[in-house]
Amino acid sequence: MRRIAALLALIAATGAASADGLQTSLRPVARPAHLQPEVAPARLLYEPLRPVARPENAQNAEALSRASMPYPIPIAPVQPGVALDFSLPLIEQNPERAGLMALLRPPLRPSGIGRNTQEREQTLTRGALCGDAAIQGEEVGVVPGKLDECGIEDAVKVRSISGVALSQHALMDCRTARTIKAWMRQGMAPAISGYGGGVAQLRVAAHYSCRTRNNQVGGKVSEHGKGHAIDIAGFQLRDGRTISVLDDWGGGKKGRILSRMHRSACGPFATVLGPESDRFHRDHFHFDTASRNSGSYCR
Question: What is the DSSP track for 209-258?
């Protein structure tokens, strides 16, 4: 009996020790101090993150980047404890952003600019001749002639072509007006090549006139008497200088310009006469749009 009681006491003591050991093994073991993690103060865990101020050059770069954006998107900063009102644009909740957007917004054009442009277009449309706003003047209609073959059926009185004024308003038909415009663009402008700022005015020596050629008695009716011709004595330049057919033909830079103008007119016009053609044209160019089956006649 004693042996049995001793055995039971031994078993009981062993079980208690095992249970105490099991509880001890389940407890966390404290780590060494050098392995302990650094714990931030509790206040930092709840403090909102604050942006770090960037260098001035970085701020300038951001401003340039936003200025180059076609549609800058304003973003209001979220402040701790302040709820955003999504019924209003974020820009209205951030005055600083509003100022930036005011700088980036393109300025409005003065109201007068649009009105002036519209009035100018209406003026050009009202003064347009031959269906071309570049040809300005007034419609005349039928111009009767005193001689047979004289007169113009649908005459126009031209005061300017492509912004270049005529020294006197010239009567002609629309075909002649369009031909003058084409020559000014393709011949006159390249010949002048910006010299003196370009041509401001054509010095017109003659336009419609019911008469014979060169005013010779018994001669054929001139193309001037049909509204097909114009005589140009010179050119007024935009810087105030002039080029004269009488004074400048055949000499220096102005003479070379006149020579190029004369050559360039041969083709667009049916007849081109200048100082070397005869004594009647020593002081002007004669251009006309006569109907010719043999091509242009140029002298």
Answer: ---BGGG-TTPPBPGGGGT-EEEEEEEEETTS-EEEHHHHTTSHHHHHHH
* 5-22 as b/e: b if 16+ CB within 10 A: eeeeeeeeeeeeeeeeee
Q: Provide the percentage of residues in the chain whose pLDDT is more than 70.
A: 58
Are 182 and 190 a contacting pair, CB within 8 Å?
Answer: no
Amino acid identity, position 246: L
> Strand, coil or helix: what is 43?
helix
- Give the SS3 label for residue 9: helix
Name the amino acid, one letter, at 282: R
On whether the pTM is more than 0.70, the answer is: no
**Region 241-258: what's the mean pLDDT?**
97
- Alpha carbon distances (Å) from 146 to 46, 88, 172, 221, 291: 106, 82, 16, 11, 22
215/221 Cα distance (integer angstroms): 9
Among candidates 142, 222, 133, 143, which has minimal Cα distance to 181?
A: 133
